[in-house]
Amino acid sequence: MAGKIRQIMETIIQERSMDNPAIAEMTKAKFILKGIRLEHYDQNSEDDPAVIEKLLQLKGQLIDPAPAPRSENIRSVYSTLLNEQEAVRDLKKQLQGFETKLLVFFASPAYDLTRVSFLLKATFPESMTFGCSTAGEIATGKMLNQSIVAMAFNSNLISDAKIEIIHDLSNRPSIDQAFDSFERYYKISPGKLDPARYLGLVLIDGMSLQHEVLMDQIGNHSNIYFVGGAAGDDGRYERTFVCANGQAYSDAAILILLKLHDRASFDIIKTQSFCKMDQILVANKVHAATREVIEFNHQPAISAYVAALGLESEDTAPDYFMTHPLGLVIEDEDIFVRSPLQRRGTI
């Protein structure tokens, strides 16, 4: 017999995820934690009894017995109506009857982000609202454009939350005051927070060039996870916004420290939509403060990029920046995509 391992894995993914891509990826991560990778097995793979037994045990933990019915704790909604007031009204209609304790939103720069932030806070006055501008919006199973996507969380998941805003990012930001505020609010040092009960979120102005500086400081203050991303503007690289409690900001970041309900838990999943190519570009010379790459493989950066893609002219290279970004590859699998912004001479 052959192929049973692959069959069991696909069954577990299908039954647990119910076609939800995020849960499917989370389930695959559970396999990896057990030392089993989906891509290592196909319909011709030998039926290893030890692996099958491990999968059946995992299936029992994840699926059997069927969980008791429970209320919806997260609701994802979106609107493609281009008028800010109509779009927010549409989101409110979709969230009718849902107890929204916290609302995170991602809005196209086609909207007035200041108005969107104000309207959402006015529409959900009892909720904590925050979000940012984007470069394309993603809802469950959908890739959108010129839309607003929102995720609402209720008190069954989120026990409490505190938002802090870091201003003037371009002037070497300090997060000391934000973490002092977290400590006063929760009455515990951030360094002593339980990583299973607290989770940090961070949204940062994508044009600030302070992403690594900010994350490095966060890591010095606490051992809990901080996850999030950078605000976009549909690839124009002109101005991006982060939003919180009715306001919109540029040259700023938002830190949110969540306290989870005692019965809630979380997993962290990282996804990306690009495939790794065989060509390797080593950044030999960079200007880190301005995020400029001067040389790849001891060649002018633009020349090495053109050679890697097999292009005929350096003049056409910017046309490929969005479809062929660069990626920092960790341990041959984990890819951190870095999209080139523009060409400046040979860099």
Question: Can you give keywords for this protein?
Answer:
347 residues, alpha+beta, 3 domains, 8 helices, globular
Number of domains: 3
Structural class: alpha+beta
Main sheet specs: 6 strands, mixed
- Proportion of helical residues: 25-40%
Radius of gyration: 23 Å
Approximate shape: globular
How much of the residues is beta strand, in percent? Answer: 25-35%
Query: Secondary-structure element order, as H and E?
Result: HHHEHEHEEEEEHEHEEEEEEEHEE
* End-to-end gap: 56 Å
List low-pLDDT spans. 65-70
Q: What do the pLDDT scores average to?
A: 87
Number of E-state strands: 17
Identify the strand order in the major beta sheet: 1-6-2-3-10-11
Q: Number of helix segments?
A: 8
Please, could you describe this protein's structure?
With 347 residues, the chain is α+β, with helices and mostly antiparallel strands. The chain has 3 domains: 59 residues, no CATH class; 187 residues, no CATH class; 56 residues, no CATH class. Helix content is 27%, strand content 25%. It is built from 8 helices and 17 strands. The strands form 5 sheets. A 6-stranded mixed beta sheet has the order 1-6-2-3-10-11, covered by helices on one side. A 4-stranded mixed beta sheet has the order 7-12-8-9, covered by helices on one side. The chain has a 3-stranded antiparallel beta sheet with strand order 13-14-15, with helices on one face. Helix 5 links the parallel strand 2 and strand 3. Helix 1 runs parallel beside helix 3. The longest helix is centred in the first third of the chain and has 14 residues. The protein is globular and about 60 Å long.
